[in-house]
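Posting for a labmate who doesn't have an account.
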Amino acid sequence: MKLFLDDIRTPPDETWTLVDNVPDMIQLCTEELVTHISLDHDLGDTDPYHSGYDFMCWLEEAVFLDKYDKHSFPHVKFHTDNPVGRNNMKRSLDHIRRMLN
């Protein structure tokens, strides 16, 4: 499964599942085999209390708790226009990659 977290944009094609809030994103990641994740940072009115960075913090904790290994960890990319949010999410992903190696 490919997950696309965003409140405004649509996924690049029909192979992606659109998710507009972090709680649903976390639920899908715990219940499904997720191979790809693409994240926006700011989720506007659909999830005003969470951001793509909050999801990355959850993902980082999941890796720390051994819920993922380097073979099962999904490919993660960022499509946000928020440069500060992108840097925070990238820093989290860099930390995850160090844990997985």
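Reply:
Got it, the structure tokens are right above this. The chain has three helices and four strands.
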